[in-house]
Give the backbone structure.
Amino acid sequence: EIVMTQSPVTLSVSPGERATLSCRASQSIGKNLAWYQQKPGQAPRRLIFGASSRATGISARFSGSGSGTEFTLTIDSLQPEDFAVYYCQQYNDWPPLTFGGGTTVDVK
Amino acid sequence: EVQLLESGGDLVHPGGSLRLSCVVSDSTVARYPMSWVRQAPGKGLEWVSSISGSGGVTNYTDSVKGRFTISRDNSRNTVYLQMTSLRVDDTAVYYCANLPSLVAPSFDYWGQGTLVLVSS
């Protein structure tokens, strides 16, 4: 099973600043990685797939990068609606499909 | 807008059974592979099971193998999760989610979830 590790667990950022979230895979997954955003009481929403492709309707403030075992989600100019929990998910080698533990982005 | 609507969540005793349903509003999307993903209270996301568009291929996480069964009825745009021998650690919000494909299975559309509470 591929283990996904996200860091930091919590990231405190001021509105308007940039947030950089990390996700590491226990073995190479190529670019087979997705990122999701989840707000309290809501279902997750896919932001990025293929490590760097934005899903339909996702703001250009969200960008993904990386390949192999190291991945990054960058959120430029944080808006109030961006404060949420973010998860990465690998789909290179499954079952099982595996998620990282999540990073909470909160207001500094 | 594509909508997924789960139902069937309830309070059940350990060892009990429950069947979850997920209705997809769009007939085209409903033909794609589908998954169930769960989230225990205050915890992260956990993939549970997936099924191909035809229903011929199914996969499960190890902890539910032999206890849960995923199925679908494409004439009703509906995916099911039959859960038996439920355990306290199965307590979670269960989401159904659409997969663009089984080759690159990231979760596209999501339902709002249905709560399964396993408790004595």
About this structure: Residues 39 and 84 of chain A are 5 Å apart (CA to CA). The mean pLDDT of chain A is 97. Chain A is about 0% helix and 50% strand.
